[in-house]
Amino acid sequence: MKSFEEISKLLINQFPSINFEIKSDVKFEPYIIVPPNQIDNVCLFLRDNIDLQFDSLVNLSAVDDFNGEKTKDEQGNDIMKGGTLSLYYHLESIKYRHKILLRVLTDRDNPSVLSVTSVWNSANWHEREAFDLFGINFINHPDLRRILMPYDWEFGHPLRKDYQNPEFYQGMKVPY
Amino acid sequence: MSVRTEEMVLNMGPQHPSTHGVLRLELTLEGEIITKVVPHIGYLHRCFEKHCEVMTYPQIIPYTDRMDYLAAMCNELGFVIGVEKLLAIQVPERVEYIRVIMAELQRIASHLVAIGTYGADIGAFTPFLYCFRDREKILNLFEITCGARLLYNYIWIGGLSHDLHPDFIRLTKEFIREFKPNLRELNNLLTYNKIFIDRTANIGILPLETAINYGVTGPMLRASGLRWDLRKDDSYSIYNKFDFEIPIGEGKMGTIGDSWDRYFVRVREMEESIKIIEQAIEQIPDGDVTAGIPKRIKPVVGHIYSRVENPRGELGYFIISDGSATPFRVKVRAPSFVNLQVLDVLCRGHMVADVIAILGSVDIVLGEVDR
Amino acid sequence: MAEYIKNIYSALITILVGMKVTLRHLFIPSVTIQYPDVKIPLPERERNRLYVNMDDCIGCDQCARACPVNCIEIETVKALPGEDLGKTSNGKKKALWVTKFTIDFAKCCYCQLCVFPCPTDCIYMTYVYEFSEYDRNNLIYDFATLTKEEREEKKENYRRFIEQKEKSKSEKE
Amino acid sequence: MIYDFFYNLTGSALFSGLFVAIMPLLTFILPFALFAVLLERKVAGHIQDRLGPMRVGYHGLLQTVADIIKLIQKEDIIARENDKLLFNIAPVLTFVGSYAAFAVIPFSSIFLGANLDLAIFYIIAVTGLVVVGILMAGWASNNKYSLLGAMRSAAQIVSYEIPTIIVILSIVMITGSMSLMTFSENQTQYFWNWYIFGGPEFNLKKFLLIPFMFVGLIVIYISTLAEVNRTPFDIPEAESELVSGYHTEYSGMKFAIFFLAEYANMFAVSALIATMFFGGYHSPFGYLGNLLNIPWMIPVEQFFWFISKGIFFVFVQMWLRWTLPRLRVDQLMTVSWKYLIPISFVNLLIVGIISLI
Question: For the domain bounded by A4-173, which CATH number is listed?
Answer without folding.
Answer: 3.30.460.80
